Amino acid sequence: MILTVTPNPSLDRTYEIPALDRGAVLRATADRIDPGGKGVNVSRAVAAAGHITLAVLPLGGPAGAALAGLLGAEGIEVAGVPVAGQTRSNISVAEPDGTLTKINATGPELTGDESEALLRKVGERSAGADWIACCGSLPRGLAPEWYAELVARAHRAGARIALDASGPSLTAALRERPDVVKPNAEELAQAVGRPLATVGDAVKAAEELRAWGARAVLASLGADGQLLVDEDGTHFGSAPVTAVRSNVGAGDASLAGFLAAGGSGVAALAAAVAHGAAAVQLPGSLMPTPADLDMAAVTTTDEVPLDRALTEPVS
């Protein structure tokens, strides 16, 4: 069972349009509404793969009730913490060439009591969890050290922790030694404070995160593939993508595939790559099912192409 924690969940509506023409009245060719938030997406991908998952998250107002209902319809158990504020709603606009424009709302401000209630809920429901995945931005009212406290409590209870966060909340949590962290290239560059122009630059940044406390680093490099840097060394995985339809939730799908495949080693990296490649070819934040995965197309190697330039270098 994989338990996910999403401190700032959302309702995500995606519109597909022929082109984004600023100031014009646009007609969508398709639209959908999905449960949102990085941890929520991990739970959705885990459930789509046929595994058991539990989503812990704060819920407020009609949007929160709608979010819980959508998750329930996908067979996901929800452990909600009632909050006074309204759960946020986000909008994504997808164009045929894969360009995605996102408008993310701020979300509610949590009180000290609500923050503690969320931590307690994780502790109460974590018994029997193979992994706890803590994912996404922190809402207003939660200090950057909130994830560090969650990781510390989970480790004291004997649980393994995967962390997908960025900025101060990531660096603060590293001192508590999360079992795996999952940054993308931009988050890696932000964490080490310098540009990343090559795969080798990303490897060095991941090694620094390990030196600061992360036991393993699963790094998404977009179209260039994924890295796994752990105590056994550095591994690289990639897969071809025919056409990008939406990259919303692709990194979350990757983390779900990695954890569902055991959360360590090359086989788990291959599962992460397959899930990410499948997710970007689906509309909105739809999560891939086993039928969407093409494991045969995944290539993994310990001979990492260190000199390869990143398709989108991070400044």
Automatic annotation (TrEMBL):
Entry EC number(s): 2.7.1.56
GO biological process: carbohydrate catabolic process; small molecule metabolic process
Residue span, Carbohydrate kinase PfkB domain: 23-290
Highest taxon above the source species: Bacteria
Entry keyword annotation includes Hydrolase: no
Pfam families: PfkB (PF00294)
Transmembrane segments: none
Keyword Electron transport: no
Record keywords, A-Z: ATP-binding, Kinase, Nucleotide-binding, Transferase
Class of this enzyme: transferase
GO cellular component, as recorded: cytosol
Example GO molecular function: 1-phosphofructokinase activity
UniProt family annotation: Belongs to the carbohydrate kinase PfkB family.
Identification of the protein by name: 1-phosphofructokinase
Lineage, opening ranks: Bacteria, Bacillati, Actinomycetota, Actinomycetes, Kitasatosporales
